[in-house]
UniProtKB/TrEMBL annotation:
Documented EC number(s): 3.6.1.55
UniProt family annotation: Belongs to the Nudix hydrolase family.
BP GO annotations: DNA repair; DNA replication
Keyword hit for DNA repair: yes
Lineage: Bacteria, Pseudomonadati, Pseudomonadota, Betaproteobacteria, Burkholderiales
Record carries keyword Transmembrane: no
Ranges where the Nudix hydrolase domain occurs: 15-144
InterPro entries registered for this protein in UniProt: MutT-like, Nudix_hydrolase, NUDIX_hydrolase-like_dom_sf, NUDIX_hydrolase_CS, NUDIX_hydrolase_dom
Protein name: 8-oxo-dGTP diphosphatase
Cofactor dependency: Mg(2+)
Top EC class for this record: hydrolase
Biological source species: Roseateles oligotrophus
Length: 159
């Protein structure tokens, strides 16, 4: 392929839809508290980076269906309602992804890390690192909602 053609193909790279679950704890007054991050499993791109659990939509699936399936497959839990929250397109070298972030307040079952990933309930600023590039805007949205000021995550340069 000629270089100009390659560039135009890259420019219109189709985004892959990804359903992402933002599990949030709430207190008796409905105030939001800790949220769940999981680390990307060995063998995937960005292995070891922290993100919100989720995965790609399969053919014919809605965001809610994909989210329920992925969270069951990866974490062993059954989720209640998924509340559409934010959407974001990220252009990685490996793929262009359209992330559909949904807040989830209800789930049942014991957490099981079925892909040998790790999980961590976090507050701002997030203590686990490194965080995936696509996670950083989510922390900014949380900061805006919660009136949190300052760095939302650690970079490793703090010590
Ligand atoms: N799960 C998840 N993926 C995210 C987040 N932020 C972000 O940029 N991504 C990107 C990373 C990946 O390119 C893509 C998700 O794809 P994936 O490879 O984890 O999905 P999957 O579990 O369906 O993977 P596979 O079966 O194809 O291996 O979205 C996030 O917070 N959670």
């Amino acid at each position: 392929m000629k270089q100009e053609q390659e560039e135009s193909v890259a420019a219109v790279r189709k985004a892959v839809d990804v359903a992402v679950g933002v599990l949030v704890e709430r207190d008796a007054q409905g105030r939001e508290g800790r949220f769940l991050l999981t680390s990307r499993p060995v063998g995937k791109v960005y292995a070891g980076y922290w993100e919100f659990p989720g995965g790609k939509l399969e053919a014919g699936e809605s965001v809610e269906q994909a989210l329920a399936r992925e969270l069951h497959e990866e974490l062993g839990i059954t989720i209640g309602s998924a509340h559409a929250w934010q959407e974001l397109t990220m252009d990685y070298e490996h793929a262009r992804v359209r992330l559909h972030f949904c807040k989830v307040y209800e789930w049942s079952g014991e957490f099981e890390m079925r892909e040998q990933q790790a999980m961590a309930w976090q507050e701002l600023p997030v203590q686990v690192q490194p965080v995936l590039p696509g996670t950083i805007p989510v922390l900014d949205w949380f900061a805006a909602e919660r009136g949190f000021v300052g760095a939302t995550y650690l970079t490793g340069a703090e010590a």
